[in-house]
Amino acid sequence: MSDTAFFLLETAIKALVILAVIATLAGLGTYAERKVLAYMQRRIGPWMVGPAGVGQVVADMIKLFTKEDTVPAGANRFIFMIAPFISSAGAFAAMAPIPFLPEFTLFGHTVYPILSDIGIGVLFVLGASSTCVYGLLIGGLASYNKWSLLGSMRSVLQLISFEVINGLSLIPIVMMVGSLSIIDIVNAQSGGVGNWFIWTQPVCFIVFLIASFVECNRTPLCLTENDSELVGGCTTVYSGMRFGIFFIAEYANIITYSILMALIFLGGFNSMWFIPGGIMMILKASFFFFFFLWTRAAWPHLRADQLMWLCWKVLMPLSLAMIFITGLVLV
Question: Which domain of life is it from (predicted)?
């Protein structure tokens, strides 16, 4: 097989694997979340369908696929129907420049577990993941429902605000490495735990972690859904698999940001002691995924004014201060 043919085949397989694996993990993520929340809140969680309730994931998928796909009478039908796919497309596209595991050799060819190693990987991830807000926005606007409209407006309010913080918090890392490539950032942390950027840029790590909760629509920094309204925000009138696609996009974003934080701040796929790099990558990403669930079990929602105060009066000045300090140190 020629190198060109192998490259095309490899790229197609990688894309299919990313779609299949991440979509499956997103489904399992719902099970993990319910079990973690149940354990922390002294409840049982899924337990009747299959051993330890594992079959509940399959039961939920069957329910979503067979449930009636309703469209409100006054809704813009076409926009209403494509909105979930816009959110999921942005979530999966953001994974293209992310190196999930270290490179390995297969049939004499070196395989890189990354779909596209572009030089502006960090910028691409932030840009692609931010397009998910368009699905939430037009889904709420096209629903012909006041609760959906309010939910979509809150989504735009939080996501556009924290996009600024998301990017500013990573500028000091880019300044230190001199590259926007995620692989270059990981390679700059090789040499052990002491070289991880979480030690040299702890403030940036905390700011990016907080912004990640907003990007993924996770409690306590989520305005898409408001518990006091007892409705589902911009997804209030969605049903069936279209409702499920919104949640697949949300969990795909959680997985993306869990991996991204492990890559940028915790050394990524670099090996540590006797533990191979691939195992370390899985452990780090799993910790952050668990942290998303843990935080939801422990903290209530913030109000919209509290979230905006945190964004513009606390996190933005901190991010700008870290850029200034990093510039002084480098000079």
Answer: Bacteria
CA pair distance 159, 120, nearest whole angstrom: 21
Exposure pattern of 67-79 as b/e (b: 16+ CB <10 Å)? Answer: eeeebbeebeeee
Residue type, 210: I
Coil, strand, or helix at residue 104?
strand
Q: Which of 174, 182, 169, 179 is nearest to 121 (CA)?
A: 182
| Angstrom distance (rounded) from CA 91 to CA 122 | 14
Cβ–Cβ < 8 Å for 239, 67: yes
SS3 content of the chain, % helix, strand, coil (to 5): 70, 0, 30
pLDDT for the residue 230: 64
For residue 228, the number of C-alpha atoms closer than 13 Å in the C-beta half-sphere is: 8
- Output phi, psi for 109, to 5 deg: -110, 140
Residue 307: predicted pLDDT: 86
Q: What's the CA gap between 277 and 241, in Å, rounded?
A: 37
**In whole angstroms, what is the distance from residue 57 CA to residue 29 CA?**
9
Rg (CA), the chain: 20
Between CA 238 and CA 232 the distance in angstroms is 9
Nearest to 246 by CA among 297, 208, 38, 237: 237
d(CA 252, CA 29): 9
Q: pTM value?
A: 0.89
Nearest to 186 by CA among 254, 261, 113: 261
Place of tokens 């979480």: 198
Burial of 331 per CB tally in 10 Å (0-12, 13-18, 19+): exposed
